[in-house]
Amino acid sequence: MKNIFTLIMAIMAFSFSHGQYNVPLTNADVESNTPMTTTNNVQYTIDGMYVNEAVDGAFDETSSGLAPGEGVGSSQALKIVTQNSGSTQSWHTQFVVNQTDISGYGNADFIFSFQIKSATVPESYPIWMTLRTFDEDGTEVTANTVTNYAAGGKISSEAGVDGYTVGDMSTSYQTAWNSFTIVPHSGGGKNAKFVDLRTQMSKLVNTYYIDELSLVSSAQLSTKSFEKIGVIMYPNPVSTISYIKSNTPIENVSLYSVTGKLLLNKKVGATSYNLDVSSYSKGMYLLSVTNTKGTSTSKLIVD
User: Fold this and answer.
1) Are 119 and 210 in contact, with CB atoms under 8 Å apart?
2) Residue 155: pLDDT over 70
């Protein structure tokens, strides 16, 4: 069984000095051996998350649950088997992460992601990701926002929320992600304290495997953050070369996956650097640049 706690701690130690933070999620590596249980035949729970059956007969609970050997790198995954119940409701099953406290991270950008694989090629819109935030009293602060995932490829985006899956999730694990921003309450009410992360699944028949959940926070994910240290980066999105220019010498350039994995760490020592992304898969990354004025982190889309 794979154990990534040592890796997570190393990433967190590095990230805290670079403005990027991993928000703890219970059982994020889906390695807990506690079996799936239910008390009402509607909500089916494993550590840190649960599956909610919105339409009777849409979720095959007898074939679902923990799936040793089916996760990333032959680790353990959560297996969700969906069925067509015949209902006309757009979504039938939800995968839900337990409500997470984000109050300690201030006004910042967040990225929620996980790895997903399917048994057969997805059709139409197999999944879409939603999120809501609540204040300390449990009052909803934000309206529901939705990100649709179309047939395992690029998504259609609503409410300014962006996201990506790349390639065919029936042949290999793909990254599903959703980004959101926490800002001060404009109406004078209480600010968000908890986030509710849900992935809704359509009435289409399929088997999904979910692994390696991650919630990353950074106060400096906006591309405008580079301006604070005199850096510009273009183009974004990019397919080949992203050009990084600085008013002062660039000390270091680092590239991370949305799950916090360090992919590139380059010492520069010049006022410009050409970042070649042609060998990276399409999707979203985090680019961190350090010069003599400080460190800043921004989203980078490889398209």
Assistant:
1) no
2) no
Q: Report yes or no on whether pTM surpasses 0.85.
A: no
pLDDT in tens, 97-138: 999 988 777 667 777 888 889 998 877 667 888 888 888 888
- Please tell me the predicted confidence (pLDDT) of residue 24: 87
Q: Which residue bears the tokens 């694989």?
A: 117
Residue 46 CB contacts under 8 Å (≥ 6 apart), including other chains: 27, 30, 32, 34, 35, 36, 37, 65, 66, 78
Torsion of CA 216, 164, 143, 223, to 10 degrees: 60
Q: Do residues 80 and 91 lie in contact, with contact meaning Cβ atoms separated by under 8 Å?
A: no
Residue 223 has pLDDT above 60, yes or no: no
Nearest CA to 274 among 238, 298, 228? 238
245 contacts 227 by C-beta, under 8 angstroms: no
User: What is the distance between the alpha carbons of residues 284 and 162, in angstroms, rounded to a whole number?
Assistant: 10
Contact (CB, 8 A) for 219 and 104: no
Number of Cα atoms under 13 Å in the Cβ half of residue 119? 10
Side-chain-facing half-sphere of 18: CA atoms under 13 Å: 26
Say which amino acid occupies 94: Q
* Domain architecture of the chain: domains with CATH: 5-218 (2.60.120.260), 223-302 (2.60.40.3080)
Closest CA to 48 of 175, 172, 215, 179: 215
Compare 63 and 152 and report the one with higher pLDDT.
63
Q: Considering the chain, what is the average pLDDT of its residues? A: 78
